[in-house]
Amino acid sequence: MKYVLIILFSAMVVIEATAQNPVRLAIAGLSHGHVDWAFNRQSKNDTKIVGIYEPNPNLVSRYMTRYKLDKSLFFDDLTKMLDQTKPEAVSAFGAISDHIVVVRACAPRKIHVMVEKPLATTLADAKEIQSLAEKNNIKVLTNFETSWYASNQYINDLYQAGKLGEIRKVMVNDGHQGPKEIGVSKEFFDILTEPAKNGAGALFDFGCYGANLMTWLLKGEKPVSVTAVTHQNKPNAYEKVDDEATIILQYAKAQCIIQASWNWTFSRKDMEVYGTMGYAVAVDPVTIRERLQEKAPEERKKIEPRPAPFTDPFSVLADVVRGRLKLDKNDLYELPVNVTVVEILEAAKNSAQSGKTVLLK
């Protein structure tokens, strides 16, 4: 009984310490549609927002009113915000092209960064981000919704345990009806439909998921070649960017087909992995279809969600900053995988524009 009480007391001390020492978090940008999450986690006490950078006064006014935020939190100058509020971590919610700007400002100040997917719009920016992170010993994490999916982790565990055999074919399907169709904000729409800000359209917005998952499954292995086809099914809605993209990644012994679209009937994020011994399909975050023997029927099962902190990217960031969580170097959030993701996306963009397969070095 004495030892049980000691363990319980120790756990309470850890919880109390976390509550009293939240990570000082700053927000860089309010134009990305996922930023509201940062203000809708009142039940969590692992982070504290100490500053918000946003140069658009209309957005500042909107968020100040929506979440009853103090005016003193807002800055229209990124470096001034960093120097005055002294955050331990910054979460970037502007254009994808601004990720490099945020990391250039944060890295010399030893401030960790989390960005929304993908890491960058160009391979040059991705490599510079990696170099700055390594030089200044900071973490730069890339947040993907599919990183939270227990189903993807389950399939990876099956593969690592040898139950699927060698991977031969992977199909990743991601997207929704389209940004206009689902009603994203004007500011987010302007990012998604401007090649300089987003890299491309559906090709980057949803092609990044498949590149991220496949690189992770193969522990950082790069494809030999990348072939992509893009199209505008709705040119009146998406004048400057593709709304339909298919990417084929060819590896030495495997192939991955990524179907990224703003034309799906309904929103979807699913993955099919076929090996030499069996296959498994991640239908949604907690639903699996699998067949591990030729003479056995396919089985459908529900699994438990990922445990904390993996259901909340800000909790992941806080635990990484505090040293409570150490991610594998080829984790879905980590730089090695996500630099390769950008390399794949850039090659896919070049392939679609040229009509030719691109060979990776």
UniProtKB/TrEMBL annotation:
Entry's transmembrane regions: none
Gene3D superfamilies associated with the record: Dihydrodipicolinate Reductase, domain 2 (3.30.360.10), NAD(P)-binding Rossmann-like Domain (3.40.50.720)
Name of the featured protein: Gfo/Idh/MocA family oxidoreductase
Highest taxon above the source species: Bacteria
Sorted UniProt keywords: Signal
Annotated GO MF terms: nucleotide binding
Domain Gfo/Idh/MocA-like oxidoreductase N-terminal: 24-143
SUPFAM superfamilies, alphabetized: Glyceraldehyde-3-phosphate dehydrogenase-like, C-terminal domain, NAD(P)-binding Rossmann-fold domains
Ion transport recorded as keyword: no
Domain GFO/IDH/MocA-like oxidoreductase: 153-280
Leader sequence residues: 1-19
